[in-house]
Amino acid sequence: MRRASLAVLISLSLAGAAVAAGMTVKDEMKSVVEPGANTIFAVGGDVDPANGPDAAKVPATRWDEALKAAKALKGVAADLNGSQKKPGDEWTKAAADFAKLAADAETAAMKKDGGAFSKAANDLGDTCTACHSKYKAQTGD
Ligand code: HEC
After folding, report:
1. pTM to 2 decimals?
2. How far is CA 2 from CA 7, 8, 131, in A?
């Protein structure tokens, strides 16, 4: 009896871990990528040196949010390049670019480097389109 219930417990906890790790692309896009990218795009605009000499003076809390968002996208990148990987060169390239640019954004946020951060943010936006144009149903959103 004891042994049987232990086996049930173990299999339940394994199932739980699998569900958490195996998030669908759709759910991860909606719950992690969209909010994270919105933060990165907004901060990227604020710190872009092209937007004026005051652009780099964003508050430290905003840089913290940008850093958190970049780390979250790095986590997603690991999934896009791993368990969620789909066949095709476009996926491979877009997912690799996404990973590199999320890491660039993270480094730039740690250094509070406005020029590098805004560049990573801009380039990151291109990866969304590159991947979606082939792999996401074009429903207008
Ligand atoms: C390597 C591929 C890839 C990259 C890069 C990518 N996405 Fe996606 N994204 C997808 C796929 C595939 C879907 C469609 C998932 C589905 O409907 O099953 C999707 C769907 C979405 C959705 C819709 C979710 C929903 O509720 O239907 C949003 C929002 C989204 N992506 C945002 C982004 C943003 C913002 C970026 C860039 C910062 C990005 N994605 C980069 C592959 C990618």
Report:
1. 0.86
2. 9, 10, 50
Residue 7 falls within a domain, yes or no?
A: no
Structurally, the chain folds into a number of domains equal to 1
Q: For position 84, which CATH number holds?
A: 1.20.120
> Which residues line ligand 1 at a C-beta cut-off of 6 Å?
25-26, 29-30, 33-34, 37, 80, 91, 94-95, 98, 124, 127-128, 131-132, 135-136
Nearest residue (CA) to ligand 1, atom 13: 136
pLDDT at 2: 53
Q: Residue written as tokens 């933060």? A: 39
Q: What is the span of the domain harbouring residue 100?
A: 23-135
Q: For residue 97, how far is its CA from the centre of ligand 1 (angstroms)?
A: 14
Half-sphere exposure of 124 (CA within 13 A, CB side): 31
With cut-offs at 50, 70 and 90, classify the pLDDT of residue 52. Answer: confident
Q: How far is the CA of 4 from the centre of ligand 1 (A)?
A: 42
